[in-house]
Amino acid sequence: AENNKISILNSVYNRTDLTNVTASITRHVGRNLHLKNQHPINNIRKIIEKSLDSTTVKPFVKYNDFTPVVTIKQNFDDLGFPKDHPGRSKSDTYYIDDEHLLRTHTSAHEIECFQKMKELDNNGYLISADVYRRDEIDKSHYPVFHQMEGSKTWARENKKNFEEINEEIANMKKQLDQFENLTISDIDYTHEPNSVNCKQNHMNDEETSLLISHMKRSLELVVANLFIQRYSNKSVNGPNETPEIKMRWIEAYFPWTQPSFEIEVFFNGEWLEICGCGLVRELAYKNSGFTAESQMGWAFGIGLDRMAMLLYDIPDIRLLWSEDDRFLNQFKNNEGIFKFKPFSNHAVMSRDVSFWLNNPVHLNDFMELVREELGDMVESCSLVDEFVHKKTGRKSQCFRINYQHLDRNLTNEEVNDLHSGIELKLVKQFGAEIRN
Ligand code: PHE
Questions:
Q1: Which residues are bridge partners to 183 per DSSP?
Q2: Quick check: is 382 in a domain?
Q3: Contacts of 232 (CB under 8 A, 6+ apart)
Q4: For residues 138 and 316, is the Cβ–Cβ distance under 8 A?
Q5: CA 147 – ligand 1 centroid, Å
Q6: Whose CA is nearest to atom 5 of ligand 1?
Q7: I want to staple 426 with a disulfide (CB 3.0 to 4.6 A). Which of 141, 211, 391, 432 is the partner?
Q8: Which residue's CA lies nearest to atom 7 of ligand 1?
Q9: Which atom, in ligand 1's list, is nearest to the CA of 302?
């Protein structure tokens, strides 16, 4: 009977056909790395908060302890996700029961934050939180990660607001001018009516441009403040080097913002997507109880784990969860950004598993089985071969699992045992037939 129940943070849920959350995932609920003192994710959060608070007279309201259990309505419906949006699928999202899931993004709290805005008389908020997504297994993907999200809103009919926005933009431009080696390549929004990235109907061109400018300068400052800390640190660069910080804007799509953009940074020889954003759609304000056409504002979301890995040079995402002193001590009494010193490199042992399948299995379902069995003892996992038998129509797949423990070396016998465990599970869960 116990098996029919799932308990998360003192609440108990009944399993349904939609349930796919597992113990290896719920175990992470409550770890709150974004609030853990002297932790890189917490450091990144604080730098972003400080940067954004510097743009405005009234500090942003901070929400850092929303529960990760939200409704399908909060995570998707209220934000205008189409019914067939891939993000809703069971292969991508951890469902708890027919109504609840583990939030896949901090935007799940956007509507409630807009609602609170009215009582608080504050037009800006920031959220940081753990988010959950089913995904592949490698050095930069973990089913739990952290996001920071924020938004700023103004009433459209109040002329004073336009003065305030203009003043803040001027102030931010001044701040940006102080960065010596900063280049930004900007793009306009699409002026063609009815395209995904055109302005919204209820706002005019002037309002749209003004808000986009406020949003972009705010986020350019965030990114500049993050990277300058890395670039000005002598442990990362030679004493005479101050590398250029290069950013560019590209178009994006999010169901609850329009137009939408993404900011990219040129780092280690490639362009990296850092942060998604856009002007909040009227739909989101209406779902929060505002009168039609009365509000205008912008919102953004940024991944904290990825930022931490980039800026500190943390080579494996599993390290962020480490309780090992060799990891944690490096962050003691230093909230700035510096180059992380890898402390161990235990052997990676590879094993392949090949099997026949009668029914197709989603890649993420295979990954989940591996996570459930191996936890953090798997460094990465990939599909190395796949074909369909001409006569029987059965599919054959071969996966390579790279075994590695972060804190110690695994023995051959251990890995063999673990690997047999995976084979058994494949047979039991997917009706696979192991090939030898
Ligand atoms: N929630 C989006 C993501 O997870 C980021 C985002 C937040 C985009 C807010 C626009 C506005 O990618």
A1: 246
A2: yes
A3: 242
A4: no
A5: 9
A6: 301
A7: 432
A8: 301
A9: 5
Q: Whose CA is nearest to atom 10 of ligand 1?
A: 277
- Of the chain, the end-to-end C-alpha distance in Å amounts to 37
The sign of the CA dihedral 215, 221, 226, 231 is positive
Vertex 328, ends 326 and 330: CA angle to 5°?
75
343 domain-assigned: no
Residues 6+ apart with CB under 8 A from 189: 197, 198, 199, 208, 212, 259
In a domain, 300, yes or no: yes
Residues 281 and 401 in one domain: no
Residue with tokens 């950004």: 337
| CATH number reported for the structural domain that contains residue 424 in this entry | 3.30.70.380
Contacts of 285 (CB under 8 A, 6+ apart): 114, 153, 294, 295, 297
Reduced DSSP (H G I as helix, E B as strand, rest coil) percent helix, strand, coil of the chain, to 5: 35, 25, 35
In a domain, 339, yes or no: no
Helix axes 40-53, 205-231, angle to 10 degrees: 130
pTM: 0.95
The closest-lying atom of ligand 1 relative to the alpha carbon of residue 107 is: 1
How confident is the model over 267-308, as pLDDT tens digits? 989 999 999 999 999 999 999 999 999 999 999 999 999 999
